Amino acid sequence: MKVLILTYYWPPAGGPGVQRWLKFCKYLPENGIDPIVITVKEQEATWPIRDAKLLDQVSDQIKIHSTSTFEPFELYLKTSGKKQVPYSGFANEEKKENFISKLAKFIRGNFFLPDARKGWNSFAYKKAMELLSQQEISAVISTGPPHSTHLIAKKLKRKTGIKWIADFRDPWTDIYYYKQMYPTLLSTYIDKRMERKVLRNSDVVLGSSPYLTELLSQKIKGDTSKFRFMPNGYDEEDFPNPRPEFERFSIVYAGTIGKIYPCHSLVDALLQLAERNTQWTFKLFGKADEEMHQLFGRLGELGFQAFGHIEHSLITKRMAEAEILLLVIPDQDPNQGIIPGKLFEYIGSGRKILGIGPVQCDAAKIVTETQSGRFFDYNDTAGIRQYLETFEQEKTSESKQGGFNTSKYLRQNQAIELAKILKTMQK
């Protein structure tokens, strides 16, 4: 059974948005599904993160078709004075914005609906129609963000009647940074209208969190059984085997972190412990804005180490070497359904998680369910300090290893579930 997958993010793009469908494509062939991928040409793509080593994980069984695109990000960089494409949530942009920067965001949020990568659509659609005419393809899958990708699949569905799965890794009009692009009432109306059309016309909708899946199902009337929760996961093959000994008193954070990821309670707790002669080291592997560097800088040279982005094959090793892994949920509504992809790799690493955010959010529920750590409110300095104190009494890495059942978050098992959905759609 052949399936066409439309994804803007594909190796050598880096970051969490790549992992979901890279891993599905790795394991779908074992379940009788032959994935055919349409993506954007590397030299024309505007990916904020690149990781060439991920190309090593692309199986020869997967047929890849890369197309041209036309995007306005070059103009954005020139008008805003930025040197880099914005990360998710604008985490690589500074707190203070000048007029030009705000204008650039306004243009992005109102003149490039649903997003600034819709210039890829015509090229990807043309290639998709070509492949559909040449091969017996049973279904098309679109994954967003960018949510403009769903519009390609919607057009394919209208033209050919092909079965269609719309995969939502993140919300569309409910994403926590949506208002940062200053959308007008008209733009918001148009955006929501496009979103509803995608939800109505797709045959199956996948949501990456329970909250997101429920949120999407409430946007349309009628049967909501086509909305399915499909979490992200982890791949055992990404981690060293056996797991290495952890580094005592070390906390690792992987990914992007900015001003809306409050960590002041953690920093205060670490400083309090340092006064008692316990020096913890916080290691950041990723991108942090200036405000976060200043916050972590309070820990001193021994307490804070920033390494920037490193390739995925190395970051999983750094996770396995840490004593504790930090997870922070953005403090900006709506955030109940935010489940960072790295959470599952944290779980896969076997190390304990220190979560900061709403204690009843979907991510916190998964941490509790898997017994993989603890979640604390943004201001719970005392709770975080007490949690860290328990680790000071531990002596061996075995005490940090899991022992809990996380099999449903294995990429192989998730591919099995997706294959079942695809095969059921054809009946």
Question: What labels describe this entry?
Answer:
alpha/beta; Rossmann fold; seven-stranded parallel sheet; six-stranded parallel sheet; 15 helices
Helices and strands, with pairings:
Elements: E1 2-6, H1 16-27, E2 34-40, E3 63-67, H2 73-80, H3 99-111, H4 121-134, E4 137-144, H5 148-160, E5 163-168, H6 185-201, E6 204-207, H7 210-217, E7 227-229, E8 250-254, H8 264-274, E9 281-285, H9 290-297, H10 300-303, E10 304-306, H11 312-321, E11 324-328, H12 342-349, E12 352-356, H13 362-369, E13 373-376, H14 381-392, H15 411-425
Parallel strand pairs: 1-2, 1-4, 2-3, 4-5, 5-6, 6-7, 8-9, 8-11, 9-10, 11-12, 12-13
Helix pairs in contact: 1-15, 4-5, 5-6, 8-14
Task: Walk me through what this model shows.
With 427 residues, the chain is of the alpha/beta class. It has 2 domains: 2-233 and 410-425, Rossmann fold (3-Layer(aba) Sandwich); 236-405, Glycogen Phosphorylase B (Rossmann fold), CATH 3.40.50.2000. It is built from 15 helices and 13 strands. It has helices at 16-27, 73-80, 99-111, 121-134, 148-160, 185-201, 210-217, 264-274, 290-297, 300-303, 312-321, 342-349, 362-369, 381-392, 411-425; strands at 2-6, 34-40, 63-67, 137-144, 163-168, 204-207, 227-229, 250-254, 281-285, 304-306, 324-328, 352-356, 373-376. The strands form 2 sheets. It has a 7-stranded parallel β-sheet with strand order 3-2-1-4-5-6-7. It has a 6-stranded parallel β-sheet with strand order 10-9-8-11-12-13, sandwiched between helices. The longest helix is centred in the middle third of the chain and has 17 residues, at 185-201. It is globular and about 70 Å long. The two termini are 13 Å apart. Mean pLDDT is 91; it is low at 396-401.
